[in-house]
């Protein structure tokens, strides 16, 4: 199994390599790929050094699967070239997510939609993945009418530049700014750029991708996305209105038996999800599960996950694992 990692020297690419090794993914040949300025550099994987190659070289090497985390413009230009060479691309950018001809996959929910003909597969947005993994089994049981989500998103979602900004601000050092404002001791109510409707791209990803993954355009979704000075992962306060009533204990039981979800919900022991516990883990954690007493059939939850792992690298690799298990590559 020849695996190309496109964007291998970036923050998500490095986590992809780590997750591939941890999960003993069946790599027979690793092809690390990056932009021209990184070509010739060496990366280490499982104790062996590999030389980074450029995009065209990687296309010509005809990998079985290419794991892309190199930005939307790179994906739009190069994913079709890899696909034309017979490589199955799993893309972590937003480039292909809302393309009606491309599948948007969270393996625990909709991997069964995939076929051999799917040569470019989209990985959802990190904040969407952790929310829909919790929502999917509840939608089946109670039918979701509306979702209100507020996110508290890690600076790692912005990238290395943002991590450096926070470290500089902690140290009192003037440096390059990833954000328009300081992030240390601050919360910035803007993730990504604004769209014409006044919402940010990140907020509209939560709206659009949720409907596509759950295959239901009738679900109403509204979102507010906030950047906070956290490294460990993204947190979300989620309010869900169902068509049918529920018991909180039954909700907890359903989620307890959902693959990839860990319930941390015990007020007596102050047990609830937090980014400091989610960091470095592949699961999605849910707690503070309680009825919304202001209106019928409505639930509040707190959902946390490591955005670089399940929100990006791990979900991408789980798609690849499914393709191999189902003999689709």
TrEMBL record:
GO MF term set: aspartate-semialdehyde dehydrogenase activity; NAD binding; NADP binding; protein dimerization activity
Catalytic residues (UniProt): 126 (acyl-thioester intermediate), 234 (proton acceptor)
Annotated NADP(+) binding sites: 9-12, 37-38, 307
Residues involved in phosphate binding: 97
Residues binding substrate, per UniProt: 153, 227
Annotated metabolic or biological route of this protein: Amino-acid biosynthesis; L-threonine biosynthesis; L-threonine from L-aspartate: step 2/5; Amino-acid biosynthesis; L-lysine biosynthesis via DAP pathway; (S)-tetrahydrodipicolinate from L-aspartate: step 2/4; Amino-acid biosynthesis; L-methionine biosynthesis via de novo pathway; L-homoserine from L-aspartate: step 2/3
An annotated GO BP: 'de novo' L-methionine biosynthetic process
All copies of domain Semialdehyde dehydrogenase NAD-binding, residue ranges: 2-117
Reaction catalyzed: L-aspartate 4-semialdehyde + phosphate + NADP(+) = 4-phospho-L-aspartate + NADPH + H(+)
EC number(s) recorded for this UniProt protein: 1.2.1.11
Protein family (similarity comment): Belongs to the aspartate-semialdehyde dehydrogenase family.
UniProt protein name: Aspartate-semialdehyde dehydrogenase
